[in-house]
Amino acid sequence: MTYRLRITETAKQELRRLPGYVRQRARHIVKALADDPRPSEAKELRDMPGRYRIRLVKWRVIYRVDDENQVVLVLRVRRKIGPETYKGIE
Known about the structure:
By secondary structure, the protein is an alpha+beta fold. It has one domain: 2-Layer Sandwich (YaeB-like fold). Helices cover 24% and strands 32% of the residues. It has two helices and five strands; from the N terminus they run βααββββ. The chain has helices at residues 9-17, 20-32, and strands at residues 4-7, 43-44, 51-56, 59-66, 71-79. A five-stranded mixed sheet has the order 1-5-4-3-2. Strand 2 and strand 3 form a beta hairpin. The protein is globular, with a radius of gyration of 12 Å. The model has no long low-confidence stretch (mean pLDDT 91).
């Protein structure tokens, strides 16, 4: 079952700003979410049901899964700096 992939404008900008050695891996991870929205390396965020993160070196790909409409929405691609990394996520 393939999900549609949507990326917020903020996440698109953050992807473009990643260092080259991380950018390609991040794009590959994001594309793979369409086929498997909950891969084994994805962790659901505490206190934020339906939102997940995937570690990518020092960065995190943060996204939401809508099973009803079969949509994966990539919310942010942020550098991990502590618990505040996940503040302000939709």
